[in-house]
């Protein structure tokens, strides 16, 4: 019986068009989804868009659009990334969807109410529109500026609903220590444990609807609108039918699922490792086998934070149009550490493209397939070299599986694993000289190496892997036929 594997991304806030930093979640999640499908697991891969809140409301007004028109326009751009980056998600949830998302968000609210963990009180504090949250003085720079958004927060006094998050700090900490809430890397787990040890504060869970009309109404209280991130977190289960007439997917993939992985950026750590677990515990929705939260770093461009003001925003669609989907996926997976901040520059990208893809994988595939086409039908006898090749490929596969289970994508595709197998294949061709007469078996072995490389590359570079395998055909029990392929990664001139 196959194991269930449910993987989600944090859902991007659609107050603007997607940029390169927005796609890390989806690329990482896509590799894991494809890998688990290859293993035969029953996979559910969810992404979506976060569409409510003050920031959306104000951005829509500035654009001369209604909030609905504004989110429809921007959400469509994020949905387009499926084709742009060859993503294999099964579902795309929108938090403005009144039929699919709102019932789940409101049902969870009612569960919190039943548990006695919601209360109403007046509150005065500093509200940062960028954060869509109240912040404290310690979050401010000199001059009272928010250090993340470079804007002054607004002093607001209003009556809100609050969630008793403070009640669940100890239990969340215990679940982290027992790995029932597994946070990867461990350094992020230590980070949130430190926050928990200091004590969690109760958090505001609503805004007055007179100030925020664009959002999910608080059930039973028309004067309040649910806080954007409070209801947005529920997308992970509302997309599975929680709150609907049919909750079978919720029961299968969440409540009783075998493995749940949530992919987030480090700025979302507190939401997913403190507030969301608190909500689940209060509502009695903790999954039987726990949750893994994979926390990746930020992407900078030329060493600087991605910013419209700086002018270094990179549109992933334009990058793909110029270099190709798999080239962009490769750079993000190989050159960016999954656990730390990483940097993108056109100069580095093109160096990596030419060395690893054009001169590496692309050149190896072109040489071997051209030799295969010239040789015609090749009898693939299992000689001693073929056995050694399969042993090498088998060891590489074991290492790739191990590193993927540990979420070390860069190592799985790097020089010690798939990259090493490509280098091994290049060296084999150079040393054995399959272009000489009577070297049919060497050509067959070279094709065997390429076939193994393509199989391992499927979760990472699905397009390139499919193209390679489409150029090879087993025509009999031990007969192989190959044909030339168009260049996988044509060499590019340096960017100016």
Question: What this model shows, in words?
Answer:
The structure is a single chain. The protein has 496 residues and is of the alpha/beta class. It contains 19 helices and 21 strands. The strands form 6 sheets. Strands 3-2-1-14-15-9 form a 6-stranded parallel beta sheet, sandwiched between helices. The chain has a 4-stranded antiparallel beta sheet with strand order 5-4-8-10, with no helix packed on it. A hairpin with a 2-residue loop joins strand 16 and strand 17. Helix 14 packs across helix 17 and helix 17 packs antiparallel against helix 18. The mean pLDDT is 92.
The portion of residues forming beta strands comes to 15-25%
* C-alpha geometry: elongated
Report the strand count. Answer: 21
How is the main sheet built? Answer: 6 strands, parallel
State the end-to-end distance.
Answer: 54 Å
Number of DSSP helical runs: 19
Mean pLDDT across the residues is 92
């Amino acid at each position: 019986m196959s194991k269930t594997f449910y993987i989600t991304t944090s859902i991007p806030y659609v107050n603007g068009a997607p940029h390169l930093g927005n796609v890390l979640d989806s690329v990482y999640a896509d590799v894991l989804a494809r890998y688990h499908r290859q293993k035969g697991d029953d996979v559910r891969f969810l992404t979506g868009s976060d569409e409510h809140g003050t920031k959306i409301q104000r951005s829509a007004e500035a654009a001369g659009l209604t909030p609905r028109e504004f989110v429809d326009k921007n959400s469509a751009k994020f949905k387009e990334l499926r084709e742009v980056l060859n993503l294999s998600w099964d579902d795309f949830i929108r938090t403005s969807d009144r039929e699919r998302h709102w019932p789940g968000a409101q049902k969870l609210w009612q569960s919190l109410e039943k548990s006695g963990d919601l209360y109403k009180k007046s509150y005065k504090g500093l509200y940062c529109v960028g954060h869509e949250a109240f912040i404290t003085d310690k979050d401010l720079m000199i001059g009272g500026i928010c250090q993340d958004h470079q804007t002054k927060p607004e002093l607001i006094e209003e009556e809100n609903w609050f969630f008793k998050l403070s009640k669940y700090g100890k239990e969340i900490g215990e679940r982290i220590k027992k790995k029932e809430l597994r946070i990867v890397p461990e350094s992020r787990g230590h980070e949130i444990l430190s926050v928990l040890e200091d004590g969690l504060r109760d958090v505001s869970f609503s805004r007055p609807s007179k100030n925020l009309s664009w959002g999910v109404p608080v059930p039973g209280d028309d004067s309040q609108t649910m806080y954007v991130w409070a209801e947005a977190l529920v997308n992970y289960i509302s997309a599975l039918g929680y709150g609907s007439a049919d909750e079978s997917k919720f029961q299968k993939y969440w409540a009783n699922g075998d493995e749940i992985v949530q992919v987030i950026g480090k700025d979302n750590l507190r939401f997913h490792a403190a507030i969301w677990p608190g909500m689940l515990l209060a509502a009695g929705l903790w999954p039987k086998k726990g949750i893994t939260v994979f926390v990746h770093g930020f992407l900078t461009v030329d060493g600087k934070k991605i910013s419209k003001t700086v002018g270094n925003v990179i549109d992933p669609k334009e990058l793909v149009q110029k270099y190709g989907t798999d080239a962009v996926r490769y750079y993000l997976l190989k050159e960016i550490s999954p656990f730390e901040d990483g940097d993108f520059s056109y100069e580095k990208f093109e160096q990596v493209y030419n060395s690893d893809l054009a001169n590496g994988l692309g050149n190896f595939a072109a040489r071997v397939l051209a030799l295969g086409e010239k040789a015609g039908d090749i009898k693939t006898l299992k000689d001693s070299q073929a056995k050694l090749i399969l042993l090498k490929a088998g060891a590489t596969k074991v290492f790739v599986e191990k590193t993927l289970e540990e979420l070390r994508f860069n190592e799985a595709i790097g020089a010690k694993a798939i990259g090493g197998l490509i280098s091994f294949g290049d060296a084999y061709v150079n040393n054995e000289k399959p272009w000489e007469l009577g070297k049919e078996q060497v050509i067959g072995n070279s094709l065997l190496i390429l076939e193994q490389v393509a199989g391992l590359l499927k979760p990472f570079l699905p397009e390139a892997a499919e193209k390679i395998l489409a150029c090879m055909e087993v025509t009999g029990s031990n007969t192989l036929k190959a044909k030339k392929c168009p260049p996988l990664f044509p060499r590019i001139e340096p960017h100016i």
